Amino acid sequence: MNAYIYAENYLRDELLLADVPEELAEELQPGCQVLFSPASNRRKNVIAYILRLEKSRPAGLMADGTLVDVLNSAHPVLTTVTMKLALWIAEYYISRPIEAINALLPAPLKTTVQDFVELCEFQLQSGTEKIVTTTLRKKILRALQESNKPTVRQLERKLGKHNLYRTLTVMERGGLVQLKKKFPQSGPKTRTAYRLRPNLSDEVTEPLKRAPRQAEAVEKMRQSPHASLFAQDNGIARQTLESLVKKGIAEKIRVEIQSSFSTGFTEPKKIIEQLSSAQHHVLKELSDAFHSGSFTPFLLHGVTGSGKTIVYIELLKQVLESGRNAIVLVPEISLTPQTASRFRQHFGDDIQILHSAMSNQEKYDAWQNLRNGKARIALGARSTIFAPLCNVGAIIVDEEHDAAYKQDRTPRYHGRDTAVMRAKLEQAICVLGSATPSFESYSNAEKGKYRLLRLPDRVDNAAMPAMKLVPMLENRRITPSLSEVLYLQIKERLKRDEQVILLQNRRGFAGSVLCMECGHITMCKHCNVPMVYHASSRQQRCHYCGHAVAFSGNCPKCSSANLLYKSSGTERIAEELRELFPEEKILRMDVDTTNTKGSHAIILNAFHKKQARILLGTQMVAKGLDFPDVSLVGVLMADIGLNIPDFRSGERLFSLLMQVAGRAGRAAIPGEVYLQAYNTDNPLFAHLLRGSYEAFYQEEMVSRKELHYPPFTRMVVIEFTSPDETAAEKAASACVDHLRSYLKRDSCHILGPAPAGISRMKGRFRYQVLLKLQSRPLAADYLKHLQYSLMNTWKKHHLSMIIDVDPQSLM
Ligand SMILES: Nc1ncnc2c1ncn2[C@@H]1O[C@H](COP(=O)(O)OP(=O)(O)OP(=O)(O)O)[C@@H](O)[C@H]1O
Ligand SMILES: [Zn+2]
């Protein structure tokens, strides 16, 4: 038998061919995680993954090594679909297949150090002779009886034998031992439970007739599938159970509990009596497509507060009912605890929430839960798209426009696009939902690639919030950050005991220069993106094309020296608010106040319980929050963000403002939004005030087309970094030369090399080459080849070349 595999730590990119020893052959399937012993270094085993198995080997082909063992109890860690998905990622995002596979699997699955062997408590006595047939198996059994729960490595050392996994797997299947991963930091969590003592006679329980609660508890324990009860569950008080222990009827035991993630945010379950007719219509379309059983991608464009979540939930109920499984992606769990908790309320243990703050043990348990079908919905951030579920029938991408879906290290996959691809492989439906769809998705819907569904109105007759623009140049200011108009509005809401959300857009301060007098921002005349200030050379530069102009320290339009190019934090604004409203508690939510576990939920809980009426924060306050008493949203510098040197800055800002505005007036109290801004005549605001996503989209698309930006082209950024600036620049130039001769001029624009927005990072100089491709004539193989050869040429200068396909940020 021969196996084609992708192996860890292997510089070569292509498939390796491995010999499979006979005794191993019957254990293996495609997708299995194995140990591979390379011919070049027999003593070193590396983890590898089987792509396919073949009986015979092509004539004249040498094997690259031998498979020596099989991990994860010989259960494939990659399904047919996730393996295909990995290969698609490697091809599309131009990375190595093993890198893609590694991105697919959670870290705890890729280490063997924590593999333990345990004797089973209840061994199937009769089968023992059939399984313990060899001296090795006898030795293992004896060793396990002597030392409890050794790691596989310890066992191997003790017996002086390598590669015991296969044998242990066979013994595990025979019910003799168990292979487990256990991570030290957080052992399995346990809870006290109560169970009936074994062999109770009726005489003991008879007198309980006079203690109805205790009798009820005994009955419930008898009926419980685990024959035990936790205190408080099923309405049984701890006291009742303790009395039973005293009487000798029940006993206390420790029970392992599933570690399930909680965001710490709780709200009472809201019963939604009936879907609106618009919600019904959308649900019907989705459900029909789902039942048709073929791949259908949807874009659900539903305004803020239109009730998208409950539509997802109703759809997933049908998916589970029909025996299929589902994946739900959210941009970031800690930022959207409300969404996660609503899904949890509906699906309980059927849903597995995945979160980056989980411990290794929790991650591993969660993965196994999904792998063996204990949980049937996976909900989490972008990597949840790789959940090891089989038979996925629906994939939902909530807030599909969010940039957090793009992975910022290799492989640089986009969670949303990967979701569409997985749905295709699964023959599932895929729902991309947003109040402000990404232009990529909206244009795909226009082209008919996605089916467009709309929820144009808020539920329960709630009105969309009224938007007002506050031109900062004409309005009296009461503090450096706050206009009198907005101040009066806040005061008014507090008087009515309503709530206020204030946003300071911090992502906007990305190195560009804004004039505080006239609002001017210097743009590149070639690329129409803001220029970035470089202090070292006192220049402003376009980091798309490299065009540079001198920076005088004064506004080129009105000569004012009152320029803003340093960050202006929420902390200072909070101080101003405290002076204006000394009686009020001000909640601040930004990176500084949310850097500890659970702190985010604490802030939101406080706001939810109305322990505070003003919530001030960065982008974080714009996402998904659903609080009925918020009647005012204020944005302190609404035009900050226009100056981000990125062709998507308009799209991003529009969506941010629309989203934050959408937090106001979601229930009975109508909402109002005040946007303080300098550049009030930017057309973006006119569209925003009319609440017209569509008009804004159409207008932006005109300039996208003219300047050959996505979605009209596909963009690829190639970044060169090195501690030696010349090396980075020269390698980038060499790359441009290569590409120019390789690519046809009319199919592609090549820009640069230019210094990156942040031209030096961690002691490395950064240069970028930007490709705008008409279609995608760029073969992954060609680019990978170029990558190896350039990195090799500049090896002494520690050059690295990073390829980013469909980049989301060009910093
Ligand atoms: N049919 C309905 N009847 C009454 N209330 C509803 C109905 N559908 C949804 N809601 C409620 O309306 C509110 C808004 O719904 P939801 O949070 O799902 O909006 P959304 O579309 O996700 O908005 P956003 O894009 O702003 O996050 C929620 O409080 C939800 O419980
Ligand atoms: Zn330029």
TrEMBL record:
Binds 2 zinc ions per subunit. Residues 289-455 form the Helicase ATP-binding domain. Keywords: ATP-binding, DNA replication, DNA-binding, Helicase, Hydrolase, Isomerase, Metal-binding, Nucleotide-binding, Primosome, Zinc. Residues 537-708 form the Helicase C-terminal domain. GO terms for molecular function: 3'-5' DNA helicase activity; ATP binding; ATP hydrolysis activity; DNA binding; zinc ion binding. It catalyses: Couples ATP hydrolysis with the unwinding of duplex DNA by translocating in the 3'-5' direction; ATP + H2O = ADP + phosphate + H(+). Its EC number is 5.6.2.4. Transmembrane segments: none annotated. Zn(2+) 1 binds at residues 515, 518, 555, 558. Zn(2+) 2 binds at residues 524, 527, 542, 545. Pfam families: Helicase_C, PriA_3primeBD, PriA_C, ResIII, Zn_ribbon_PriA. It is an enzyme of class 5 (isomerase). GO terms for cellular component: primosome complex. Its cofactor is Zn(2+). Initiates the restart of stalled replication forks, which reloads the replicative helicase on sites other than the origin of replication. Recognizes and binds to abandoned replication forks and remodels them to uncover a helicase loading site. Promotes assembly of the primosome at these replication forks. Component of the replication restart primosome. HAMAP family: PriA. Belongs to the helicase family. PriA subfamily. This is Replication restart protein PriA. The lineage of its organism: Bacteria, Pseudomonadati, Chlorobiota, Chlorobiia, Chlorobiales. The gene is priA.
